[in-house]
Amino acid sequence: MTSRTSRTTARATPARAVARTQTLLKGKDGIGTVRRTTLPGGLRVVTETLPSVRSATFGIWVNVGSRDETPTLNGATHYLEHLLFKGTAKRSALDISAAVDAVGGEMNAFTAKEYTCYYARVLDTDLPLAIDVVCDMLTGSLIAPEDVDAERGVILEEIAMTEDDPGDCVHDLFAHTMLGDTPLGRPVLGTVDTINALGRDQIARFYKRHYDPTRLVVAAAGNVDHARVVRQVRAAFDRAGALERTDAEPTAPRAGSRTLRANGKVEVVNRRTEQAHVILGMPGLARTDDRRWAMSVLNAALGGGMSSRLFQEVREKRGLAYSVYSYTSGFADCGLFGVYAGCRPSQVDDVLRICRDELDAVAGGGLSDDEVSRAIGQLAGSTVLGLEDTGALMNRIGKSELCWGEQMSVDDMLAKISAVTPDEVREVARDILGQRPSLSVIGPLKDKQAARLHDVVA
Amino acid sequence: MTSRTSRTTARATPARAVARTQTLLKGKDGIGTVRRTTLPGGLRVVTETLPSVRSATFGIWVNVGSRDETPTLNGATHYLEHLLFKGTAKRSALDISAAVDAVGGEMNAFTAKEYTCYYARVLDTDLPLAIDVVCDMLTGSLIAPEDVDAERGVILEEIAMTEDDPGDCVHDLFAHTMLGDTPLGRPVLGTVDTINALGRDQIARFYKRHYDPTRLVVAAAGNVDHARVVRQVRAAFDRAGALERTDAEPTAPRAGSRTLRANGKVEVVNRRTEQAHVILGMPGLARTDDRRWAMSVLNAALGGGMSSRLFQEVREKRGLAYSVYSYTSGFADCGLFGVYAGCRPSQVDDVLRICRDELDAVAGGGLSDDEVSRAIGQLAGSTVLGLEDTGALMNRIGKSELCWGEQMSVDDMLAKISAVTPDEVREVARDILGQRPSLSVIGPLKDKQAARLHDVVA
């Protein structure tokens, strides 16, 4: 179904300028219907309806992240994300924030290595306002020189704040340990040096180059009407003259050819913290890898909850850490798997030995069928529980469209999760956990102790 | 309406042992109906129905917090909260966590100065399991000596982790600055010394004394049936023999007679962090103060969102901080109001001067009617948006029952918020912000700079 506006437009412009709308997922009782419209100009709009709620989350995903930065541009994607809140031809920074604050909405954005997302969660009646504000930010940002300078201070503070959170910045260190000084290995925030060196024109060029409608996915979820959302988004982008290249087609999901090999590196940053913050990890799976369902089950069983192996062995039985968990991050062509723990320096050797032993044991097939089936239940239950949050729904459909170019229903996801067999988990455990690990540590470690850490990855 | 089980019980025991059920709020179309049953034994069960969701959050609130600790017991409430996850006569620690993990639920707990809460969020079909596990933890915890020792390590790690998060622990410092070495002024986690000194028997006595059914409020929200929840809770507590004192009545909401005066103190903890983390604040309002609605509006306008005064003046216009906000915390008899900012040491003087100037300006009546009406819109919108989260609903009804002994409908809350006048905001601003502030700082400040900080509170 195309909206009335788009049909009218279609009559006045060449045939190829017709908006194309598809129902990608049918849903049940109006819940979970996912539709996509591709507007002339190559802009995609996906929505998911959840008529039982009174809220809606509206977001725009951009196919750009810190991975697209050269060394000198490191931090530009995130810097730009901040600058989009600073004003457009029509709105000052205060106008932007006041509009959403006045209706009690939440507006924010996040920048990752492969994408950037801007969103607002509001009452359904305020959705037109959210669409108007977010579309204006994306299409009409001024990037005024004085704002670039004021915001530089804010970014430098954000970098300093992250530095003060060792449990956070050890993840940046681990990316460096595994990926080195490469686009994927560099921090999303950039560094004090790159941020100080970035100029207004560099950022404005970056904006112009990457915020093309063909590289955007608009996503809305909650009590939303697809045709109305499409109409409003189209009008907003039309006003900005952003859909003029009517024959433009959306870009394909990001591809890549990075292969990642286990490197057995150890990187230690000596800092006067109370705890040592460690990540023991290795290459993981790319986002599109078929083994990702088995990997999720493995991750849940190993370090995903209070009943997981690592939580039980490190915290529950021995009281060696407060926070211990495993995680996966998948990119277009490669991925990471890691185990995080925070513990006092005197416990680091014990904690790492236990983590390494568990990785080895699980790589060797040591996960019981019980653990696998509990992990499957955990993933299935939390998937269904996640359906009530319009923010989570918007994230799923937006990211799916941008990164996979397709949508998957919850029923299909549940089927994929439930179909994972203990054998598949054993196989992916052998392939991934069986690799030589690398290690990143931030903490007050003496040289002698730091030297000993090499034994952990031997 | 009493449940069938409770009527049967009533026949077999004295008349006073009948469960009393009231509909406290009627709701609309089945949404937002709040019911309370007081069971014989003095146990309160409150529920709120939201039939449009598939989830339920079940929690138990306990009328005990760090405020109830003597100096030597400091940290016992929170230590005990951890120990309740370690096992009962029927379940090991793994049994407890595996039960909820296996269905994808989230289970956790939090300890505050005046209450403790344990909760699980699950699919509605798994609610009986959540009730069973959480009730078992509350009534049948073993507090085994070996678990006390293992968990001591975990708590010490949690303290160390908090120490590594200066933006978090500056709040503990501010409580100390304002309230000193008193029950309300001491940290919820305790200190390394008190945690190392606490013995199993002290904690077990604390458990026995404070976890009496008369001091508990059971709360459930989501797709729940009140009568069925009451039946299950009653059965679980009956099995533990916890409802035997059939004439016991619930305890009244906590009262107190602490008055708090502005003290103009400055406390600086010198630490080698990247940012200095500051709180500038003063006595606020008790939880039950009638002026709390005007205070919420004031807080939102001053430091509650991106369009707020402090965000605009400190971050948006001058780029001096990434994180800057104001907040209120209310206790039974007193409260705190504070402004937090994190910034590099070289900016501390500027940031504090701006914050102090804004506090003074607003105390002098400088908030515009526009700012007040925007803040009202913000609070109203976010209140309605919060209704979709069964966890937030459970928190509201549980805390209301424990701390106020009554429930307020969303419509009444919205009416209270909307009725706040600019004059009322001006009045509370004058009363609260017009007091002499105190200041707490964690950061790498030289003595000279630290000495200058006294000017800020002069």
TrEMBL record, chains A, B:
<feature type="domain" description="Peptidase M16 N-terminal">
    <location>
        <begin position="44"/>
        <end position="191"/>
    </location>
</feature>
<dbReference type="GO" id="GO:0006508">
    <property type="term" value="P:proteolysis"/>
</dbReference>
<comment type="similarity">
    <text>Belongs to the peptidase M16 family.</text>
</comment>
<dbReference type="Pfam" id="PF05193">
    <property type="entry name" value="Peptidase_M16_C"/>
</dbReference>
<feature type="domain" description="Peptidase M16 C-terminal">
    <location>
        <begin position="199"/>
        <end position="379"/>
    </location>
</feature>
<dbReference type="GO" id="GO:0046872">
    <property type="term" value="F:metal ion binding"/>
</dbReference>
<dbReference type="GO" id="GO:0004222">
    <property type="term" value="F:metalloendopeptidase activity"/>
</dbReference>
<dbReference type="Pfam" id="PF00675">
    <property type="entry name" value="Peptidase_M16"/>
</dbReference>
<dbReference type="InterPro" id="IPR007863">
    <property type="entry name" value="Peptidase_M16_C"/>
</dbReference>
<dbReference type="InterPro" id="IPR011765">
    <property type="entry name" value="Pept_M16_N"/>
</dbReference>
<dbReference type="InterPro" id="IPR001431">
    <property type="entry name" value="Pept_M16_Zn_BS"/>
</dbReference>
<keyword id="KW-0645">Protease</keyword>
<dbReference type="InterPro" id="IPR011249">
    <property type="entry name" value="Metalloenz_LuxS/M16"/>
</dbReference>
<keyword id="KW-0378">Hydrolase</keyword>
<protein>
    <submittedName>
        <fullName>Insulinase family protein</fullName>
    </submittedName>
</protein>
<dbReference type="InterPro" id="IPR050361">
    <property type="entry name" value="MPP/UQCRC_Complex"/>
</dbReference>
